[in-house]
Amino acid sequence: AELLTGLSVTSVEDASQVGLELLNKGCGSVIVTLGPLGCVVCQSTNMAPKHIPTTAVTVADTT
Description:
Blueprint: H1 2-5, H2 12-24, E1 29-33, E2 39-43, E3 46-52
InterPro entries: PfkB_dom, Ribokinase-like
GO biological process, one term: phosphate-containing compound metabolic process
Organism: Cirrhinus mrigala
C-alpha cells in the first residue's frame, strides 16, 4: 500500500487513508494489514473503512 500510494502507514488512520486512496485509483477492495494492530478493510461498495483488530495470542510452536 505504501509503495502504491507513496503514503506511510503506521496507524489505523493511515491505513484508512491509504485504503481510500487505492479505491480512488480503481481498486474494488483493499485490505491493509497492520501486524498487531489488525487490519483495515475498504470496499468500493461501502466507502467507510472498517478496522478489524487482532486478538493477542501466545505462540506455542512455530514449526
